[in-house]
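hey can u check if this looks right to u? its 177 residues, i copy pasted from the old doc so theres a chance i mangled smth
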Amino acid sequence: MATYAVLLRGVNVGGHRKVPMARLREALEAAGFDRVRTYIQSGNIVLDSHRDAGEVGEAVAAVILEAFGHTVPVMVRSAAEMDRIAASDPFAGRGLDESKVTVAFLSAPAPALAVPAGRPEEAHVRGREVWVYYPEGLGASTLDRSGFWKPLGAVQSTVRNLRTVRRLRDMTARTPE
């Protein structure tokens, strides 16, 4: 049995694609997942399964479609991957605001990405994750409009701030009760 962090993209944002977490936990348990937990309302799930990560992602997406009628991108990382991701923070030791450091979780390895010259953001590509520091905050940034993400093409992604990444790492690290 393995523990996974399951990250959904675009649920419960601005009143769109509503997925009540309590109902989601029930639906996932009914689908055979064990120790299903959620963190905040933005689609963060930790669960146990005998399935591999790919099968977990497909099954969770199918449950969401059946129970809520939404097709959403689903990124899955194992407990070991979450530990590695949190430990690989390229901004560690700088005392940055955790809400301004994000990790984009991707469905495939990222190509080379470069922040355009003169922009305040900093980015680091690490396999299937892209770390970005938004010194002025994500909401104030125009990095999305700069073409920075364009090389990802059809690669699916979802973004979490460093606080959430660390919380999910901690949740996946807990031993079964």
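Residues 100 and 139 are 10 Å apart (CA to CA).
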